[in-house]
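Explain this one:

_____
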Amino acid sequence: METETRYVYIGRNIDLPDVRLNKSGIYFGEKIEEIRKKYPLLEKLLIKADDLPFAEKNEILLEQLTDELLESVKGENDGV
C-alpha cells in the first residue's frame, strides 16, 4: 500500500486562486500535487513532512520566495 506524501508549507499565509496555504499547514492528496505542478515555486515552500527536521529555516529566503509566488500568480491573473 502506497502512502500519500505529506507536505508542510513553510512560507507565510497566502491565498492563491486554487487554495489558501497556512504556515505550518500539512497538505496531501491529488489537489496539492496539482497545485505544486501549477506553481513551481511551491517546490521550495512545501517541504516533505519527513524532511522538515533537515530543512534549513531562513526567514528572509522564505519571505522572498512567497513574494515571488504571489507576483507570479498576480502576473497570470493580469494576463487573463
The first strand starts at residue 7 and ends at 9. The chain has one domain: 7-78.
